[in-house]
Structures are given as structure tokens and as C-alpha cells.
Sequence to fold (525 residues):
Amino acid sequence: MLLTIITASALAGVLSPGVSSQTIDHVIHISVDGLRPDAVTALGPVHCPNFHRLMIEGAFTLNARTDCDYTNTLPNHTCQITGRNVLGPDSHGVSFNSDTSATIEEIHGSYVAGIFDVAHDNGLITALYSGKDKFALFDRSWNAVNGAPDITGEDNGRDKIDHYMYLWNTSELVDSFLSILDSNSPGFFFLHLRDPDTDGHAYGWKSPEYLDSIKRMDAVIGLLLETAETDPSLSGSTALIVTADHGGTGTDHSDETDPFNYTIQFHTWGPGIPAGADIYLLNTGSRIDPAADQLPCDAAVPPVRNGEAANLAASFLGLGPVPGSTIGEAHDLAVTVPGQLPSISITSPVEGSEYGPDETVIIEAAASSADGIAKVEFFMDQVKIGEDTASPWSFSIDRLPLGDRILTARAVDGTGYASTDRIAVLVNTLTGDESSGGRWDSRTVISPNPVTGSSRIFFSIDAPGPVRLQIYDVLGRQVHSLQMGMQEKGYFGIPLQLTALGPGVYFYSLTRPGEALTGKFILVR
Fold:
């Protein structure tokens, strides 16, 4: 379990809901269809490094809720976009789960606004990219004919969604979504990822196929995080909201009384958001952790629901609430800090440093805060490895595993707020003697890494059996496969022919008798 950084007593009277002191002009809202939080924790940081990165670097809960009456796709996505429940006098009314060719206005009886209205009418770019064709409901409900007139400032027209796309192929969908993020135009961008739901229905929630789909979605999250950090038009001004419409059990999710169906996760990441914070502890007066229960929609103190996303996005962008919304309409879901978070910087080693397998790595960090620094925590590959409670802040590691390693330092100040810095280092000094000595007897490594020309994959097997190598791109597409046949017990260094691959980041899975080993490499041309 991750350590919760912020305590309720430390936050009393300190954290106020609303807008961060740092400007956010891009919001990326990602809904992972059918994602169960316990599947992410079961896979762990090794297989879901980016979901765990969101937990280390952002504010989150793994115990959020769907709508109180429905655990289906269309009803809950309409909640996420409109900030309304499914049923009731102020609801959105979308209780069905297939496209009926109607509009939300026709279903509800009067116009229902969404976050697209608020962003578009204030001159921002809006986009909805979906992996299911039923999301045409939203494009139709807010198009140039059915969208409400823009009465906010300059008339931007009635079509509230500037970019709408449906693609069943998730890789192509993500590629297209990334292309619109390259513009300098601020806005609200919604991405729906269907794969876990599709594989859950086909093979069962928690099946190997379902878990593999979550690994692929984790890679997409990582790609979006990288884009938000490295694109000059997005860096330092982009917030992510990551949630789900429902979970699932067996091959279904329609039973709204089943905790596996109504329990979801809710992540926020970006400027001014305290690292490692439990959203419930940030909101002790306005939200309640429901334990294993599904609270009614009219609960005096509600849980965090996926329907919070619409007004949270509006709040991030400095805009007013979604008209007619009833979930988070007061902009009272606190996930940002009104002042400054502590500053933290890893001063040694530097980004891209290389080490041999026997070297000791000393991580040194500089941290400061007006409230003082209580401690600095250190992580490797999203797993906490230690902490320091006194300056100068440092931690040493002996014998890092071979390969690319992500080192993170998280500074926690005297009030409980935290922020992070991270770097990548490479443990990749292999010689022929080392490879024959079995120094990586429980691992596999591609060397040299980054790959610029010829390369080998080094591995060991403890018993005779078949060996297979599969290589995937960052979107989870298999791009190379090598059947190595039956191998005897021993240590191996097999040449790799990667001339057909373009430059970029790749992931590999080496299947050997008894297990599959995974890793990452960078190909440079």
C-alpha cells in the first residue's frame, strides 16, 4: 500500500477548494472503461508503472464510486460529462446503454449542458475521442444543430465539441488524440479507452486477457504523461483526470449492488496538486470514504464519484460550474493547493547517468518549503525504497537491477503537502565475463541500451524449455517476435535484429520456462 502523505489534522483550515496558484489551461480527461482498482494494485508497479506514478505524484482515491443507480457505460459517461446523476429531477436521464439516435435534451425533456458547453463557450478547444460508437450520443446532443446558443462573450457557435472521433482501434485512436494535443490552443480533451471493458466481457474481469488490456492502457497513460511533461505547449500547464465508468465481475457489470461493479478509481495529476495525497483526506468536510458501501445519491456527505470530473475540469480551467449540474457544482472538491508546494530537485545523479551492476548509487536531493521539510522519500520504479528525515537529503542503493531505472524523490513539508522530481538512470555495463557468470540470473536485459546499432538480449533459464521474445511499442502493439526454440539450462546472449523498427521506446516480454520477464529499451537511429 502507498503511504498517505497528508493527514486530516495537517489539512484543517489549510486546503481550500478552487483554483491552484499555478495556471492550468489544458485538461486531459481519461476514462478507462471497465477498470477495476484492485486489478491495478494486483498488477503492481512492475506491470502498471504509470497508474502507480499517478498515485505517487498526484492526488487520488482507489475507492471512488460510479453513479448510485447504474454501473453501465453510457449512463456513467454522461455523469462524467454533465456532473449530474442518472435519475432524479435534476438528472441527465440517460439510463440506457445503447445509442437510440435521440439527444440528451430529448431524453431529459430540456437542454442538458456539459463540460463541453462551459469550455467551448469560453473560447477553449474541445475534443471527444472514443473507442465505442455509442458515444455518438454526445456528439449529436451538442452539435451545431442541438447545442445551445453561446451567450458567453464572443459567439463561438452551437457546436460544443470541436473534435469528435470514434475509432475501435485503440492505437489509432490514441495516435489521433495525441495529434490534437500538439496545438498551442488551451482546452478540454476527453479520451475514452474501451479495452478493459471489451476484454472483461469477452474473457472475464481479472482474466489474463483483461489484465493484459490494463497493461496496455497503462502504457497509454504513460504516453500522455510524457506528452504533458515534454510538449512545450503543455508542460507545466496541463492537468490529468483519470477515472472509470464502472468495474466488473465475471463477464458483466450491470448489477449496481456489487462492489466490484461500483468501485472505481479517481486520479488527478498536474500543477498545484499535492503528490501522494488521498482525496478523501483533502476533503474531510465535504466527501466521505464509503468503505465498501454504495451511498445513495442524496447522501448528506457524498463519496467521490466519477461525476465529479466535469466540474473539477471546469475548476482547473478557472471556469464556472456546468449549468444545472449537481455533482461538485460548488467547486468544492479540493485537489489543488492555494499556495506553493515544496520544491524538490534531484541533484545527483543527473538524468541519463549510467552505472555498472556493482556500483552504489547515491541519490541526493535539494528540497525547501516555507513550512519546512519533514522528510524526503525515495522511490525506484514507483516502489518506495527509503526516506531521509534530515538535511542533506540522500539515500544510497547497492546493486541496482540491470536496465533502465526511474528514480523519484518526494519532499513532504511540515503541513503534509508533497511534490516530486524524477530522473532515469541506466544500469547497463555488461562484459562477456559478466554475461557468462550469471550475474543477472533472475532477470533479462537488452544491452547496449539505448540501442543504436547491434544489440543482444541477455537472459538465463533454470531448466530446459522453449524461449520466446515479443516486442511491443508504447501503445501495446506487437511489432516483433522471435521464437528461440528449445534452450538448455544456462546463460545466453542472443543477437537482436531490429532494423525494421523505427526509433522510439519499446517494451519486451521474454517468455522462458516458468515465467515471463519484461523490460524496456530505447531504439535510437
Remarks:
- DSSP finds 14 helices and 23 strands in the chain.
- The chain has three domains: 23-316, 344-427, 432-523.
